[in-house]
User: What shape does this take?
Amino acid sequence: MSAILNADLHCHSVVSDGTLTPEELAARAKANGVDLWALTDHDELGGQHRAAEAARAVGLRYLTGTEISVTFADETVHIVGLGFDPDDAAMTQGLYDTRGGRGKRAQEMAAQLAQVGIHGAYEGALRFVGNPELISRTHFARFLVEQGHCRDTSEVFRKYLTEGKPGYVPHRWATLRDAVRWISEAGGLAVIAHPGRYKFTANEEYALFTEFQAHGGRAVEVVTGSHTPAEYVEYADKAREFGLAASRGSDFHSPDESHCDLGALPPLPAGLTPVWELLADRIR
Ligand code: AMP
Ligand code: MN
Ligand code: MN
Ligand code: MN
Assistant: This one.
């Protein structure tokens, strides 16, 4: 297999909270020079066969992917899974259960927003939803921007929908242990997504890495659209310290919202094991 120069192993389609279809993403990844791609919709495998087929059609190597919502130390942590069997029954059921609370949570978010004078947010967010099982905060953010409450979705997440702000509803997602197990037992590899984004103390972060690894997790995102250059260095060091492989992904959601386009990332820092080397036999 020729060397992989540009791997993008984290992005979202209309099957979760992205605005492009799997086919549009494959075409965009190809146009941007990506040569190994994974679609990682939140808590969903519904786009996997389409993405793999679209990747093949445009001549792009592909790994199956997902991004699982996990509750750890009372915070939401995201665990990316790569290279698993997209038809695995236990994982499919686990993700179905993980998605299950989203409808009720969305109703509660809308009720809170109504209390600060923003009415019709549930119906409004639904208009942006591509998958009725996957209503997310991103869809509410798009509705608030459309209604002129905020200029862009980042402003929404500063003023609403986050802890202490109107529209924030705490939610219990999958456990770390279950998420890592679903991925591993389906033949894939678990990756800690964008660790620089969590508001953990040093001790809590150490506990996340340690427990993740104890459950069989193997990699961490080092170069991601969610990290600063200083965080590339910080998490490259963490990967070496824990003996974890390193992943790379834009976390692209939308041409209008994402500051990092598909494949538009620096290379992994030297001296790391790229996660795709551990997944060579899972690449299609
Ligand atoms: P949910 O799974 O419903 O809690 O929604 C989480 C999603 O909201 C993430 O996957 C991001 O797409 C989006 N999100 C969270 N925080 C921010 C932020 N600060 N700026 C932009 N998007 C965000
Ligand atoms: Mn998202
Ligand atoms: Mn994430
Ligand atoms: Mn993501």
In short: The first helix runs from residue 22 to 31. The first strand starts at residue 7 and ends at 8. Residues 17, 42, 69, 136-138, 153-154, 157, 253 surround adenosine monophosphate (ligand 1) (CB under 6 Å).
